[in-house]
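[recover] target loaded
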């Protein structure tokens, strides 16, 4: 595995402990109620009602900013919301009772869409293609360096712009390592 200098493992772009990821898997469209009939047993907080794996807590502001107008009209902002980061699950956001799928989110979701032109960094426009081209051209993780400089200057808006509700740098580093030949491409 290729490692780039000056990367602090376990910290997000702001130097805070990195958030843990969690699971998801399925297909479909539309917000669906997650009742005990929809999944075995009663709904469990933080667990995706479709794939049954835990999600990562996100702020309501993240969910509000990224849902389609139709989905936003059904949002209950008082609920605790979670992001399902698993590429094999169509759910993006969920509570214990409700799930919003990819079709209801205004942007492509990095973890759910393997396309080359999907954003990895939603603040500064770094896509998989752009990161890979830059790393191959320079031999360095200049995308992470540039993003880190923007973060230090106070320009980052990951909690609002990134569907996962947090820092993109771990994703940027993974794509850069893949480009450098250190890892197999992520799904």
């Amino acid at each position: 595995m290729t490692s780039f200098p000056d990367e602090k493992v376990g910290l997000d772009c702001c130097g805070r402990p990195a958030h843990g990821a969690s699971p998801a898997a399925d297909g479909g469209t539309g917000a669906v109620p997650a009742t005990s009939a929809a999944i075995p047993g009663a709904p469990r907080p933080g667990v995706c009602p479709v794939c049954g794996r835990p999600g990562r807590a996100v702020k309501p502001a993240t969910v509000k900013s990224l849902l389609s107008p139709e989905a936003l009209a059904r949002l209950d902002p008082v609920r605790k919301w979670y992001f399902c980061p698993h590429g094999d699950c169509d759910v993006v956001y969920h509570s214990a009772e409700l799930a919003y799928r990819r079709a209801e989110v205004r942007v492509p979701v990095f973890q759910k869409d393997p396309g080359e032109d999907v954003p990895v960094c939603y603040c500064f426009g770094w896509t998989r293609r752009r990161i890979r081209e830059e790393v191959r051209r320079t031999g360095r993780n200049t995308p992470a360096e540039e993003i880190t400089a923007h973060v230090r200057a106070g320009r980052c808006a990951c909690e609002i712009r990134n569907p996962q509700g947090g820092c993109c740098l771990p994703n940027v580093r993974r794509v850069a390592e893949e480009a450098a030949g250190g890892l197999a491409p992520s799904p």
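[recover] notes: Confidence is low (pLDDT under 50) at residues 1-12, 14-40.
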